[in-house]
Amino acid sequence: ESFERGVPRNPKADLQELMEKRGLGNPEYLLTGQAGPPHAPVFRVIVKQLGDAPGTGEGRTIREAERKAAEIGLQFLLRQ
User: What gap in Å lies between CA 41 and CA 29, rounded to an integer?
Assistant: First the structure.
């Protein structure tokens, strides 16, 4: 449980574990936008169950944006 030590080994797995423990189900990632030119897009993703309150993950790939959204969601839930 690396998220409890503040060192996320895998933010998506850690978020899933924490959400399951809290009875929130499995995280679902929702692509909320894409900006930038075709050769350098920036994707925006939120964790659907948490909405955009914690923040939006942004990245050059959808996978990177999901990872950042998971990090943000994990930090948000750990403060609750």
Answer: 18
Confidence bin at 4 (pLDDT 50/70/90): low
Q: How many beta carbons lie within 10 A of that of residue 80, not counting itself?
A: 5
Q: Which two tokens stand for residue 66?
A: 């999901």
Enter the tokens of residue 63. Answer: 């996978």
Q: Hey, which residues does 31 pair with through a beta bridge?
A: 45
Residue 4 DSSP label: G
27-67 tens-digit pLDDT: 999 999 999 999 999 999 999 999 878 889 999 999 999 99
Return the sign of the alpha-carbon dihedral for residues 7, 10, 11, 14: negative
Q: Which domains, from first to last, does the chain contain? A: 2-79 (3.30.160.20)
Q: Check: CB of residue 15 under 8 Å from CB of residue 70.
A: yes
